[in-house]
Amino acid sequence: MNAIDFSNSYMTWFPQHKGDNIARIQLDAACTLIDDKTGATKQFYLIAPCRSERMYLETPLFQMPNYEFCGIWAAEDFLIIRTGWESGRDNRQYGIGRERWLDTRLDVRTFAHTEVLTEDPAIVKATLDNLALSARTELYDPATGRRALLEYPIKTMNVQQEPPRFQVDTGPLILPDFTVTVTHPIECFEMAHVVYNVMDKAEFVLRKPVVIGTGEHQATTTDYSVIQFAAARNEILASQ
Questions:
Q1: Mean pLDDT of the chain
Q2: Is residue 118 domain-shared with residue 20, that is, in the same domain?
Q3: 39 and 119, same domain (yes or no)
Q4: Which of 30, 125, 175, 205 could cysteine-pair with 151, CB 3.0–4.6 Å?
Q5: From its phi and psi, is residue 202 left (phi > 0), alpha (psi between -120 and 50) or beta?
Q6: Are residues 128 and 96 in the same domain?
Q7: pTM: predicted TM-score of the whole model, two decimal places
Q8: Both 86 and 158 in a single domain?
């Protein structure tokens, strides 16, 4: 299976009326949920974040108070995630694509050739040769019999030449929480970054509410503030 070319993969929505806005947004990461008991699978895609804006008007175009607009898309449904400085938590909105827009399209492109790199020297060489690097991280939850296959571009790769070592530090990506009960599977995800330097475990930092300040100066914001460790099966992919 060749790696996803995230830099050339997009979600595009098409409005009900021709005069309304069409938005094409690059994909940042993917996750496939797999139920080993039923064999059911479903793919989800994280879109790149942007900022709230006023469309096709005179300046100023940025809305104020401003917020980050992001979201997760599947073939049928979506979860919009709005995060602003005034909110202590993501403002999440679930919906069905065909009910909100005329159509939503996921164009997921793959590289022509992908090689799985299994040894540290090969990972160091591919990094310094400036090959396109991405990764797959597989997680398994024995309590539910469900698996998650995370796929994401490696935007930051650290390497050491002597002795050869690597350390992935990248994101954002989407991480499922197998412990929560949700109405729709797309609602189980948290946004996260990942770091690891071995193939059998990963460390995530999740975007969660966090209290800052004390006393009358206390406030709540949302940032990457909760660390989670997981047994994992990581693969480093070099593509052309």
A1: 95
A2: no
A3: no
A4: 30
A5: beta
A6: no
A7: 0.95
A8: no
